[in-house]
Design brief:
The protein has one domain: Class I glutamine amidotransferase (GATase) domain (Rossmann fold, 3-Layer(aba) Sandwich), CATH 3.40.50.880. The chain has seven helices and eleven strands. Strands 2-1-3-4-11-10-9-6-7 form a nine-stranded mixed β-sheet, sandwiched between helices. Strands 5-8 form a two-stranded antiparallel ribbon. A hairpin with a 2-residue loop joins strand 9 and strand 10. It is globular, with a radius of gyration of 16 Å. The N and C termini lie close together (about 5 Å). About 45% of the residues are buried.
């Protein structure tokens, strides 16, 4: 299987330089479940988008501190690419910014969190269970870092999870689109480091909740299993 990763992370800070880039995070997550898979990374923030996504069995749109609601040229180019991918029914997965960009591109709406910034490891509850979401516990723990979210679904979408202050924690469309507001690619070390790096920018209560959440691990392996099964089962993909 060959997966294309569209990197959308605009962070060029010293913090970002000390940690693996998003493409490497996604490669590592996939390799932990399917070590023989290959992943190619393209930087969507510079307009580096593969032509027609030839040869990809699946596509990942990553997170970003940028807003998927902006009209920056690279964001608009990405939205157009998402529409082409969806029309071709290539299995398409988005996380956080990627989840929001897919929703916007296909007719959903975005906005700020109704409550505070969500950070740390949260408990999300499962809703509509897609065929690849097995096993499907009533809830799962996963890393989170978002100040915006999807407010209304694109046509034909079904909610797959809800989280704290977030009624659309992820959605599916048929067998070719799967998204999450959360960050399965973030390791425990990274989400802990990110929490400390953001502490000075957030209110004390948000920071306290985020730090306390790190006491228990995330269900990273569970979500990684869902993701690889999605690519194997969804859309036009062939294992």
């Amino acid at each position: 299987m060959h997966i294309t990763v569209l990197n959308c992370n605009t962070d060029r800070s010293r913090f970002a330089a000390r940690h693996p880039r998003d493409g490497e995070k996604w490669r590592a997550l996939l390799a932990g479940i399917r070590p023989g898979w290959q992943a190619s990374v393209f930087d969507a923030t510079t307009g580096d988008l593969p032509a027609e996504h030839a040869g990809a069995h699946g596509i990942i749109v990553t997170g970003s501190p940028a807003s998927a609601n902006s009209d920056d040229p690279w964001v608009l180019e990405l939205l157009a690419a998402i529409r082409r991918i969806a029309a071709a029914r290539i299995p398409l997965f988005g996380a956080c910014f990627g989840h929001q960009a897919i929703a916007r591109a296909l007719g959903g709406t975005l906005g700020g969190n109704p409550g505070p910034f969500v950070l740390g490891i949260v408990t999300a509850e499962t809703r509509t269970i897609a065929p690849w979401m097995t096993p499907a516990p009533a809830s799962f723990r996963i890393a989170a870092a978002h100040g915006e979210q999807v407010l209304t679904l694109p046509p034909g979408a079904a909610i797959n999870s809800v989280g704290p202050g977030c009624e659309i924690g992820g959605f599916t469309i048929d067998d070719h689109i799967f998204t999450t507001e959360y960050h399965p690619e973030m390791t425990r070390h990274f989400i802990t480091s990110l929490t400390e790096a953001m502490a000075s920018k957030l209110d004390p209560d948000t920071c306290s909740v985020a730090r306390a959440s790190l006491a228990e691990p995330a269900d990273t392996g569970l979500f990684a299993d869902w993701l690889v099964r999605f690519f194997e089962q969804g859309g036009t993909a062939q294992p």
